[in-house]
Amino acid sequence: MSTPVLDVAGLAFAYPDGHQALFGVDLHVHAGERVALLGPNGAGKTTLVMHLNGILGPDAGTAAGSVAVSGLPVAKDHLREIRRRVGIVFQDPDDQLFMGTVRADVAFGPANLGLTGAALDRRVMEALEQVGMTEFVDRPPHHLSFGQRRRVAVATVLAMQPEILVLDEPSSNLDPASRRELADVLRSLDVTVLMVTHDLPYALELCPRAVVLSEGRVVADAPTIEVLTDEALMTRHRLELPWGFDPAAAVRLTTG
């Protein structure tokens, strides 16, 4: 088996106030996988994600275990490269869009890596093409709809050419059309995806594999359809499907 793109081994973490958020988490994701990270509020999902590119590290609390991206340890000496490899798209696009135009926002990261001129312009347009937003390149982000801003936020990360795209609640606050448009974008990307979500139908639609985190531990790692049809597991870890949603029927509809 090849080296995982993401290799989390025995990761434990306690905040300075003594709250233990993670207890020996193991998570291995290979190139090209799309994995949903599921779990109730307070499960440790955000704490785990913040370890993936060094936002949280040993200095922020008491830690044990390791995280590596394509064999490169997530450590202080490697943070610049790790943060290029692991792109996080936050739940609120306005946390990532702060420049006067879409072009400037998407160019910000690559420019900080030293890209200039025509090469920078190409990188910007390639990223916007991936999310279907090239026609908005010179618009101020605050003139865009929420769904359009979320796609531009994805483009700001894609412009860094990451190995892993981490999405925090990507479908939240989207209308049905925007939700579908973003799903089409995510399916088309040639990048490894880790999607943190409470939107279980979205997880089923986009991620063949699901990992359930509960009380700081991985309690399930299986095909998404198996997780969502395991009623005992779902109940035990406070996961609920929308009323009337039948995951098995949804899979039959998309594959039949």
From TrEMBL:
Gene3D superfamilies, per the entry: P-loop containing nucleotide triphosphate hydrolases (3.40.50.300)
Top-level division of the source organism's lineage: Bacteria
Topological type in the membrane: Peripheral membrane protein
Transmembrane among keywords: no
GO cellular component: ATP-binding cassette (ABC) transporter complex
Keywords carried by this UniProt record: ATP-binding, Cell membrane, Membrane, Nucleotide-binding, Translocase, Transport
PROSITE patterns found in the cross-reference section: ABC_TRANSPORTER_1 (PS00211), ABC_TRANSPORTER_2 (PS50893)
InterPro entries named in the record: AAA+_ATPase, ABC_transporter-like_ATP-bd, ABC_transporter-like_CS, ABC_transpr_CbiO/EcfA_su, Co_trans_ATP-bd, ECF_ABC_transporter_ATP-bd, P-loop_NTPase
GO molecular function: ATP binding; ATP hydrolysis activity; ATPase-coupled transmembrane transporter activity
Record bears the keyword RNA-binding: no
GO biological process: one example: cobalt ion transport
UniProt main location, coarse: membrane
ABC transporter domain residues: 6-240
Protein's cellular compartments: Cell membrane
Its job: Part of an ABC transporter complex. Responsible for energy coupling to the transport system.
Similarity comment: family membership: Belongs to the ABC transporter superfamily.
Name this protein carries in UniProt: ABC transporter ATP-binding protein
Species per Swiss-Prot/TrEMBL record: Nocardioides bruguierae
